[in-house]
């Protein structure tokens, strides 16, 4: 992403983003951030509570949580449309993993581990982990959360948060924009030689 690119703005004007001012855009942004944070919480519960029984995805789970937190920052603080598309793409992947893990399509699900002959899961810290049914419930809860994340992120993408227009400085201040000092003033003319 390119930042701080010099652009020509009319004297007495600043760049504003009208689509970011809409209530629907603000609520969509908040909902995407909330769904990313809920996803991180659910993944951490399953990862920490069932650490000893996770098959090879321990590091990936922690990286996925970190990436979701970074995306939540970029969508929430910077209105990143690229963060929306990445959130939707990773949401699709996590949805697939949650469906497979929750239903046991590729082997044993958490719910199957409640039967005789299966050892109880232990946490990352070595203590007794959460029960298999609880871990299965949190895994299955990831499915609707990821489906919502995908849908809401795509709605946010269609809201065109990146559209820029010029507005007079006073109007921008009335609309809630922070206008940096010296914004909108014409550049100094070069000295005559």
- Give Rg in angstroms: 23 Å
- Given the structure, what is the number of helices? 5
Q: Work out the count of structural domains.
A: 1
| Count of individual beta strands | 2
Shape: elongated
What is the N-to-C succession of helices and strands?
A: EHHHHEH
Query: pLDDT below 50 for ≥5 consecutive residues: which ranges?
Result: none
Mean pLDDT: 87
Distance between the termini: 39 Å
Structural class: mainly alpha
Strand content: under 5%
Instruction: Estimate percent helicity.
Output: 40-55%
Instruction: Summarize the main sheet.
Output: 2 strands, antiparallel
Quaternary structure annotation: single chain
Strand arrangement, major sheet: 1-2
What attributes does this structure have?
single chain, 193 residues, mainly alpha, two-stranded antiparallel ribbon, 5 helices, 2 strands, 54% helix
Describe the structure.
The protein has one domain. A two-stranded antiparallel ribbon has the order 1-2. The protein is mainly alpha-helical and 193 residues long. The protein is built from 5 helices and 2 strands. Helices cover 54% and strands 4% of the residues. The longest helix is centred in the first third of the chain and has 27 residues.
